[in-house]
Amino acid sequence: MTSPISRYMRAQFTIVALAGLVLTGCASASPSTDASSVPPSAPPAQPVDGAAEFTTLEATYDARLGVYALDTGTGSEISWRDDERFAYASTIKAMAAAALLDTVGLAGLATPVPIEESDIVPYSPVTEPRVGGSMTLGEIAHAAMTVSDNTAANLMFEALDGPTALDVDLSNLGDDTTVVSRIEPDLNEAVPGDDRDTTTPRAFATNLNEYLFGEHLSGGEKAQLETWLTGTQTGDTLVRADLPTDWVVGDKSGSGGYGTRNDLALIRPPGRAPIIISVMSSKAEPDAESDDRLIAEAAAAAMVALDAAND
């Protein structure tokens, strides 16, 4: 049976390069709608080769592209430059919010934090008007996640005892790849060859999968993280742009120097297990413009590949 995303993509983009996908041993998807439930018997991940489509996208947009997508029901993977380093930019806010939940719990989100003039950095639409007052940690995390408020991100870092402490939190999660070094806005510098504030598509997607479906967060904390993801106002032109409108998508976007444009997302197609996807990109020039369409088309191509894997 042809799925909605396959029909949609074939009509809109005529994607044919994925017809020769390499696939072995994938099982049927197990529907899941509970943010706190992990598919109980997902088989080991199986790689699917979408190289032709991703190569074309890199050439079209003159960019380096990294993709890692995981079907949590079947264990099928889509991967392209998934172990190469990219500047994570504001997608780190999703990791900070998850680590904050792990550290303070739901009750701790009610903790008030004073907002001072000295805290404010560029692009702080929620926190800047609150100078002289206070916000709760929950309000701060909501601002960082849904509108990518940079001061809010720094206040989350501070609540976690700084970037180095978040780096340790991610290491405890099993991520020995990500290097958390600086706060906003410096973390967006993205100079090629500088490992500070970088990760890989696989590492960040694996982290998000662990926070949403692993053992580190309680059921209520997982639900809160997913609520922040689905409440984002910055991702309409990214992963969710070319997916069917009845698919629920929660994401955290990011952008930085050297054309960096990223999106880290949870996708819930109706009637099947959730999908975790990380799409990252960069360009050669410091002032290069990023391309949202590259992220959208790469995500849609990855979904077509997963459909092929599960047919």
UniProtKB/TrEMBL annotation:
<dbReference type="InterPro" id="IPR012338">
    <property type="entry name" value="Beta-lactam/transpept-like"/>
</dbReference>
<comment type="similarity">
    <text>Belongs to the class-A beta-lactamase family.</text>
</comment>
<dbReference type="GO" id="GO:0030655">
    <property type="term" value="P:beta-lactam antibiotic catabolic process"/>
</dbReference>
<keyword id="KW-0046">Antibiotic resistance</keyword>
<protein>
    <recommendedName>
        <fullName>Beta-lactamase</fullName>
        <ecNumber>3.5.2.6</ecNumber>
    </recommendedName>
</protein>
<feature type="signal peptide">
    <location>
        <begin position="1"/>
        <end position="29"/>
    </location>
</feature>
<dbReference type="InterPro" id="IPR023650">
    <property type="entry name" value="Beta-lactam_class-A_AS"/>
</dbReference>
<keyword id="KW-0378">Hydrolase</keyword>
<dbReference type="InterPro" id="IPR000871">
    <property type="entry name" value="Beta-lactam_class-A"/>
</dbReference>
<feature type="domain" description="Beta-lactamase class A catalytic">
    <location>
        <begin position="66"/>
        <end position="280"/>
    </location>
</feature>
<dbReference type="Pfam" id="PF13354">
    <property type="entry name" value="Beta-lactamase2"/>
</dbReference>
<dbReference type="InterPro" id="IPR045155">
    <property type="entry name" value="Beta-lactam_cat"/>
</dbReference>
<dbReference type="GO" id="GO:0046677">
    <property type="term" value="P:response to antibiotic"/>
</dbReference>
<dbReference type="GO" id="GO:0008800">
    <property type="term" value="F:beta-lactamase activity"/>
</dbReference>
<keyword id="KW-0732">Signal</keyword>
